[in-house]
Amino acid sequence: MESIIEALTSPLAIYTLTSFVMLLITLILSAFFYLKNRNLPSLYLFLMILFLWLWPAQSLIEFHYSLLPFDPVFMAIDNILARLASISAFTALFFGYLFAESLEEEKLHPFKTLIIGGLYFSAVAVTISPYDLIVGYDETFHAYTNYPTIVWIVFSMIYILTTGIVVVVDLLKQRKRAIHVPEVVSQINLMVIGMALGFFISPFLIFAGSAVIVNGQRILYSSELLGAALGAVFLIIAFARNPNIVYVTSAKLYGIYLMSEGGVLRYEYKFASDFLREDLLSGFIDALHNFSSYLLGKVIKVKSINLYGYTITLEPRRNYTLIMISDKVTLALITALRELAKIIDNIEDFDSYDFNELDKTVQSLFSFVVRD
Fold first, then answer.
1. Which of 98, 151, 186, 352 could lock 44 by a disulfide, CB 3.0 to 4.6 Å apart?
2. Which has more confidence, 282 or 27?
3. What average pLDDT does this structure show over 202-219?
4. Distance between CA atoms of 253 and 365, rounded to whole angstroms?
5. C-alpha angle 347/348/352, rounded to 5°?
């Protein structure tokens, strides 16, 4: 009984149980944010924390077996759990990369994603390999533990550190672009702290956990779980402080235009003064629709076109088309444009509606953009 109490009050038990509870709470909060926002960043955040939570969850099962006498059956189970726990952590880091990228980009950067994805599968491969991650029973500490080879360490560290550098650099670039929006800067600062804890501090704690022994105990063993859990907490705080601002974008937005049937310009909001003459815009959109119909013999919902360094994005609806002109398309801009379209859908009579009332809505939905 005394040995069990001693084990339950050991640093290993404290780190594992605390991180399990912390990540469970952040998992519930991340699920709430996803159900509220229904967008890619909140989905990736939820999946990242889900796989992070599976890491200490599996470690708890391993810890349970460590309280029991050595048994070859437990050894086999622990062998599987140890590999699943590592793969869960690697998968969480990959979703962390997707989360950081989705804050700005409409589509993932192919070259970066290829590199991060390749490193991820390499780290998983060496984790699955029975020769690169060896699980054994430590007679000194009376516990099941991992004995990673130099191959596993090298592949894992390259994957973790490379992904961490890409993620943090992305966030810092976005912070620089959004310097005029204090709420976004505050969010990004918290995200950087959270990512740094997960990508840089936790790997250091893994090595410290094996190397630091005080009074016959590895006082930092499994402390990396707590580091990762703290990182997730900072990410959740970033969302909770300002849940309305989800995106950061480097795109420059020049104008929003609403054209009804017949090419009538009903509304415009210019983010850059004297950008585009109304007659040129009307003629261009009308020509674009006619050309699309001519090509395929039916009405085509053209989404965007690049023209002399500008991107014209269309959101066609039943009786009108929203037009957005920017230097590039990002997920943030597309989402905001569609949200604006949902609001306009509720306008029953365009002829009697005062479209100037949309100004505050547009300012709110596109508050994150870089103005020219």
1. 98
2. 27
3. 77
4. 12
5. 90
